[in-house]
Amino acid sequence: KWLTTSAKPNIQETVTIKDNTYKRDDYTNVTDKIISLVGRNLHTTPKHPLSFVRQKIVNYFYKSFVNARGNPIFSVYDNISPIVTVEQNFDSLLIPKNHPSRQKSDCYYINHDNLLRAHTTAHQAELIRSGLDNFLIAGDVYRRDEIDRTHYPVFHQLDAVRLKTRDQLFPNDDVLKIFDNKNKTCIINGQAKQDCHTLEACKLMEHELKSTLVGLAKELFGENTKYRWVDTTFPFTQPSWELEVFHNNEWLELLGCGIMIQSILTNTGVTDRIGWAFGLGLERIAMCLYQIPDIRLFWSIDSGFLNQFNTEDVNKKIIYKSVSQYPQCTNDISFWLPQNKSSPYASNDFYDLVRSIGGDIIEQVMLVDQFKHPKNGKESHCYRIIYRHMEKTLTNSEVNVIHKQIETAVRKQLGVTVR
Ligand code: FA5
Ligand code: MG
Q: In whole angstroms, what is the distance from residue 194 CA to residue 95 CA?
């Protein structure tokens, strides 16, 4: 008896995700609600809209890049565990130690060393090290963020990497080179190429990357799709761009991309290739393609949603028909923030708590008022919580029960004083 109890791990000191157990520490902020979503694999669920979008993109790459025998050259990884190390998610991509994307307020950390990946780019270095030149990675990614119709703490990304040797980049040419050590910084259209690359290698890669992605946008949204390139920066590419498409009268950011920073390749042992890479979000594309109004719907197990995608044909034109919009219920909550300087209050902690308790009936949480008392310096926040069920009308008393639970939980767990 004595033996069995002492051999059991203390539940409070560990986190268990998909049969793996991790030690908790002061970095642990992953919630039970989030853990419950690990392994749903919507991107590979048959007849799911996110799976259709993944298949359409994979098919486009299969047909666009073939070898001399007509076989696809891209391989696809869509089943890699989302539990990654800090090294995979950040260090291997040269993301600086003080970069905001590493903050506890933005990521779901399991502990100091492990987190739920914040992008599928987390796997690019290990796949390159394993010897691959052309691959796609699709998977679920986890970010602490605001709550509204286009943001959910779990969404899905698809990344691509393509590496080319000198001979592949400049076929039938003996003179042109990828690398040039003497070359100085060179600014093209406001963006510097990497010093180690020749201008012609960088430009040729940019051209293949951009024409591939414009081709993809047209494949998904139609030949007449309006698009534009926007300069941006990522720690792991240079130059870097975002592709935006014009949809429903607004510009929508589809993806980020660029020429891979050369030292990412040399760190994996690749010294003779130049690479391009991109990462896109599957939800945004699916929301446009099928006119799905709210990102929570992808998680619905209601037949009213799923039956509308009940087809074997990934290219079938489907327009989602709203199962009539059920009414919203709005309820505000105001509280004084704790004045503990060592663990400062973060809105994302509140958003997670609301999501943990209210689940998918939380449509949106807005910070509607902030106030600092002029005399005692105490700060208060007022949030508006919008409740709406996707499949039925919520009653006031149902909402009140949950709202009360939220009040109790914020008082206990965040140390605030509800006003
Ligand atoms: C990245 O995640 C980079 N890893 C992309 C990348 C890969 C750049 C390789 C260069 C080379 P970003 O955070 O911007 O970048 O996200 C990429 C795409 O994911 C966005 O363009 C968007 O389509 C989608 N996305 C980002 N955040 C969300 C969100 N909260 N909800 C839904 N989709 C999102
Ligand atoms: Mg972005």
A: 17
- DSSP reduced 3-state for 287: helix
Are residues 144 and 123 in contact, defined by beta-carbon separation less than 8 angstroms? no
Best of 103, 231, 255 for a ligand 1 pocket test (most atoms within 8 Å of beta carbon): 255
- The pLDDT, as a whole number, for residue 191 is 85
pLDDT in tens, 111-130: 999 999 999 999 999 999 99
**Cβ of residue 239 lying under 6 Å from some atom of ligand 1:** no
pLDDT beneath 70: ranges in the chain:
1-12, 183, 323-324
- Give the span between the Cα atoms of 188 and 169, in whole angstroms: 20
Whether the CB-CB separation of 155 and 126 falls below 8 Å is answered with no
Give, using CA atoms, the residue closest to atom 30 of ligand 1: 151
Does the CB atom of residue 82 touch ligand 1 within 6 A? no
Ligand closest in space to the Cα of 257: 1
Token pair, residue 233, equals: 């920066």
Identify the pLDDT of residue 327: 85
pLDDT tens, position by position, 172-183: 999 999 999 776
- Residues 6 or more apart in contact with residue 180 via CB below 8 angstroms: 196, 197, 198
User: Does the Cβ of 140 fall within 6 Å of ligand 1?
Assistant: no
ipTM above threshold 0.90: yes
Pocket flag, ligand 1, residue 256 (CB < 6 Å):
yes
d(CA 297, CA 363): 11
Task: Spell out the domains of the chain, with CATH numbers in brackets.
Answer: 20-296 (3.30.930.10), 324-418 (3.30.70.380)
